[in-house]
Amino acid sequence: MSEAALAGVSEAADQTTTDLTTAAEAEVVVLAVKPGTVGTVLDELTLSSDQTLLSFAAAVPVEFLESRTQATVVRGMPNLAAETATMACAVTPTATDQVAAILSDLGEFVEIEEAQMDIATAVNGSGPAFVFYLIKALAAAGVESGLDEAEARVLAAQTFKGAAETVLQSEESLEALIDAVSSDGGTTIEGMEVLWDSDVDTVLGDAVRAAEDRSIEISREFQHD
Fold first, then answer.
1. Which keywords does UniProt give here (predicted)?
2. Annotated binding site for NADP(+)
3. pTM value?
């Protein structure tokens, strides 16, 4: 880990180190490295059955991790929003109490079957990039019609944030929430008609499937190791 990376987490950590022996003393050891380096790191990281290994290494199966450590393994797929404590995270097989406490401090998490981790990687792991793209497009439409770029960015981003929070706090279906904004003869329904007549659902679905397929490809690289 670089000095810059260590400095970036120093305020949130009791101690920072580049020494694996020191890191291995923690009750929960978080493995947040690129998939290709997981084997090398675990070969040098000695953990006991009393410890937990929380792996955020994308597409690396639980079986591969368990074959290289005695620790209890929890595999997770967080996303970039952990930086603002609004993360969405999928974990498998189940989160221990300690892992649940860590993840809850960073946002929301769900427990899923490992067979679902590739699609979760696409939806919540890659999803922020897709949302950023849509925010950019919404803001650009505002700029094109006269809004200041900074103002359009705030309005578009806050709109996504508010809509997302509404979904999380509401028991209504997404269709019902759309209807709640789209009154007959109003402005929203005119825009929704354009979306309904477009192939935006197909394109977004294709983006998710492409990310899922790549996650599956990476996972297969570990099946014979």
1. Amino-acid biosynthesis, Cytoplasm, NADP, Oxidoreductase, Proline biosynthesis
2. 32-35
3. 0.90
